[in-house]
Design goal:
The chain is α/β, with parallel strands linked by helices and 251 residues long. It has seven helices and seven strands. Strand 1, helix 1 and strand 2 form a beta-alpha-beta unit. Helix 1 packs across helix 7, helix 3 (67-81) runs parallel beside helix 4 (105-134) and helix 4 (105-134) packs parallel to helix 5 (154-174).
């Protein structure tokens, strides 16, 4: 798969660490150049160095749901690399835990703004800047929480269910020029998901037929496939990446 993305350019949001950085790393290893985004400049700078420096990676810090940041990142990507072929909407937040009915309305609005409306806006900018004319491929990072009830993280699950539905709608609206797919991971060993397994990883893993939690590389390979020409007849689909856990009803 080396150089399978030669001359192609991607934006990966939420990519200073975890799943996003894993995806960016996979794309670079396959020959792509990438723009990575996240809120904090310092971790982004470290990630750019890890990816190989400014020849293959640039960083644009900002909040994923901020319109000015979205416009800046897309414009800088096209200005620096001359094109924009791939978009990975990876940024997601879950700042609250508890019953959906008890969630503060402002917190709920923020979750939906970042997890649902921001991916829509990023894709709109990518379409207008390049993909609408030249074509492209998009992957939205959802979650198995969007496929089934997830007590404690219910509104996060609602937002990810919306991402899955949004993926379907956009695939219809944007085909055949732009393909839009999604992945739905189970628990992946990242800082974001620490609360779901820290101190009890063996217990949590026992519910998985694969007897382990996911790692960013598990997600990155699937995302790269969906972005690639090998997936050229796949659009509007959500690939479940869960180590088999949803077969038995676990998280």
């Amino acid at each position: 798969m080396v150089n399978s993305f030669k001359d192609r350019v991607a934006i990966v949001t939420g990519a200073s660490r975890g799943i996003g950085l894993g995806i960016a790393r996979e794309l670079v290893q396959r020959g792509a150049r990438v723009c990575i985004t996240a809120r904090k400049p310092e971790p982004l700078a470290d990630a750019v160095n890890e990816l190989g420096g400014p020849g293959v990676a640039i960083a644009v810090p900002g909040k994923a749901d901020d319109a000015a940041h979205q416009e800046e990142a897309v414009a800088k990507t096209v200005e620096t690399f001359g094109r924009l072929d791939m978009l990975v909407n990876n940024t997601g937040i879950n700042p609250v835990y508890g019953p959906v009915l008890d969630i503060d309305p402002a917190a709920a609005a923020k979750i939906l703004a970042v997890n649902v409306l921001a991916p829509l806006a990023w894709l709109r900018h990518a379409r207008d800047a390049w993909m609408g004319e030249h074509g492209g491929s998009v992957v939205n990072v959802a979650s198995i929480a969007g496929l089934r009830a997830s007590p404690g993280i219910g509104l996060y699950g609602v937002s990810k269910a919306a991402v899955i539905r949004l993926t379907q709608e956009l695939a219809v609206e944007l085909g055949p020029k732009i393909r839009v797919n999604a992945v739905a991971p189970a628990v992946v060993k990242t800082k974001f998901a620490t609360a779901l397994y820290e101190g009890r990883e063996e217990e949590v893993s026992a519910a998985y037929p694969m007897k382990r939690l996911g790692v960013p590389e598990d997600i990155a390979g699937a995302v790269a496939f969906l972005l690639s020409d090998e997936a050229g007849w796949i659009t509007g689909q959500t690939v479940v990446l869960d180590g088999g856990v949803t077969l038995g009803g676990g998280l």
